[in-house]
What we know:
Blueprint: E1 2-6, E2 14-17, E3 23-32, E4 35-42, E5 45-53, E6 59-62, E7 65-68, H1 69-72, E8 83-86, E9 92-97, E10 101-105, E11 111-116, E12 129-132, H2 140-162, H3 177-189, E13 199-203, E14 211-214, E15 220-229, E16 232-239, E17 242-250, E18 256-259, E19 262-265, H4 266-269, E20 280-283, E21 289-295, E22 297-302, E23 308-313, E24 326-329, H5 337-359
Antiparallel strand pairs: 1-2, 1-12, 2-3, 3-4, 4-5, 5-6, 6-7, 8-9, 9-10, 10-11, 11-12, 13-14, 13-24, 14-15, 15-16, 16-17, 17-18, 18-19, 20-21, 21-22, 22-23, 23-24
Amino acid sequence: MTTYTLSRTSPKNTTLIDPGGTVAYEISSTYHLGGSQTTIKKADQTLATIHWKVFQRSTITWNGKTTTISEIFPRSRTLSTSRVYTTPSGEQFKWKDRAKLYCVSVDTGLNLAMYERTLFYLFRSKKSTLDISSSGAHLTDALVVTWAIAEKKARDRRRSRRHGGGGGGGGGDALDTWEIVYILALNLRNPPSSPKKMTTYVLSRTSPKNTTLIDPEGSTFYEVTSKYHLGGSDTTIKRGDQVLATIHWKVFKRSTITWDGETMFIKEIFPRTGRFSTSRIHTAQTGEKLKWKDKGKLYCVSADSGLNLAVYDRTHLHHFRSKKSTLEITASGSHLADALIITWAIAENKARHRRRSRRNGGGGGGDGGG
């Protein structure tokens, strides 16, 4: 058996590293209006390109031919989550999505591949893996290509279930109920040695598009920078050297965000709570919902428990006063710090648009592209 370790859990943006520590496969995606394009490479060779489409059937270019995914990798039957692929040599294998995603030979029933998805891979030493058995070794290229499709479809179903749907949906990495129970069980078995306290980040500037957030030790913990171009700007949010998210602010179109390897409209991932509401709500990977409210101060609460998660204290005339603007994250929100920083940047940018609109005699609109 050969075990490939994944650099990320996203089937659209990851590398598969072989047991010798060499990158064996590279999967990368580019995003455009109407969908995205995922390229799967082995060394310098492009194996396949998947054309994900929002308004049309997705297609794949593989072995020199472009066909719809439903033709080359169809469901095993109507409404089934399993998919079957037939190789050029006539062998058939089936990917099944049960508690784990795995692949078997249709002809022999032998296991060919198993995907072991690790929760919160960024914070754990154990990484996600794709195991290819000796029975599937001669099909490795095809197994990697079809895994990318099968796991993308599985992610869509997990997201749909999270939002109350029956199995379709977007492409995030939501957690299933059994996964949340597992995490809670781990926490009960290994409780923290001491309670976490509130963390106060001091902002170098009040701009949610260009600032650094400095932790209590005086180190730059988060960095928010923007580049401007015709038609909008791109705001990148980093923790250390890691890019957490990039927000694509657009003047004439709906703004989008690239987060966890997926690009979505802001209104999808961080929608208003009501049609005319200034509050916005985001569902974290754990299923927890956090709500940002703009009531004199911008602050965030848990939509489930009502507990305060974060408060933004904006200092007027920031450059001329010793007191700087701060973002406080409570103990209840500490495990959501990255998500709170990203959603704060969006929420405060929206709040600035409303303040500017009111100053100019508007009614509080100008919420800005999403």
